[in-house]
Amino acid sequence: MGRPLKRRPVFLVVALIAFVALSVWRLWFAPVPPSVVLVRGEVMGTTYTVKVVADRREEQTAEAKVALHATVQEALDAVDDSMSTYDAESELSKFNDGPAGRDVQLSPALGEVVALALSIGARSQGAFDVTVGPLVDRWGFGKPRTDHLPDDAQIEALREITGHAHLSFDPERPALRKDDPRVRVDLSAIAKGYGVDETAAALHEAGWDDFMVEVGGEIRVSGQTEAGRPWRLAVEKPSPQERAIYQVVELSEGALATSGDYRNFTVIEGTRVSHTIDPTTGRPVTHALASVSVVAPTCAEADALATALNVLGPQRGLALARAQELPALFLVGEPDSLEAHATDAWTKIRVK
Length: 352
Known about the structure:
Blueprint: H1 2-28, E1 34-43, E2 46-55, H2 56-59, H3 62-83, H4 91-97, E3 104-105, H5 108-123, H6 133-141, H7 152-159, E4 167-170, E5 175-178, H8 188-205, E6 211-215, E7 218-222, E8 231-236, E9 245-251, E10 253-260, E11 265-268, E12 271-274, E13 277-278, E14 283-284, E15 289-296, H9 299-323, E16 328-332, E17 339-342, H10 344-349
Antiparallel strand pairs: 1-2, 2-6, 3-5, 4-5, 6-7, 7-10, 8-9, 10-15, 11-12, 13-14, 15-16, 16-17
Helix pairs in contact: 3-8, 5-9, 8-9
């Protein structure tokens, strides 16, 4: 009976060595369950959220999070500094405040966004128009806010300085010219998306492959989630009273953007006014489209296309989306009686 008592210390030592060895192997050699590094902030008058799938052992540190946050903020600030219409010192504001009739050299980033904006303007038969800002302001969405609806004469006067025909663009230099000093370029409907793309590019350059970038509701993803699956992105139910998911799509690469007026509207003289202005009429849209969501390879493209389709409305917008084989979802009507109309390309990425 004494022999087992004599062997117990040896057994315990061997067991302890084995446990330590196994722990070291797990720490340094075994696959480490991935985790998420999350950073948030504010930019462009809205908020952003970035989720990066990281190695818990090596990357989930305070230093890594600070570095990641700096990478994201720097990318977004660069876009805002160039394309803001609120900052008088931005590159875009200087163009808007400048004279007509001369070419203005643009930075590569601003040139890229202007080129895409003009392209989508042509693809949408003028529904996407970056010169529509003065009309948007006059309908109650500028600063200071107005409490009077514009009359027909005011609308027609503003339409005279609206339209891409007032702009001349040389993509090679790149350079932009306007034919009237009152013409103003507003990239609000595409700059956020471009900021998402620039952030994604910065993350790739920093060595990250699996992430989600969201700025003001516009989203771009790459790779997989921490669970090793494609990213699931939600389309919100278009209701000003609640936050609810209406539908979900699954993506490993690409971007999702949504445009709608269910939260962005104003009331002037008892009239509900949509922030979506049709450049061809100079007036807010009056159709029943509550929201439209678009998936595209880049967020700048998705952002601009969602705006264009929202301007066109449920019939013309859906026809254009189908003709161009865009993954798009149109939600028509009121929250209590929504009708969903999806393109075939959307149906392929929708989660059942």
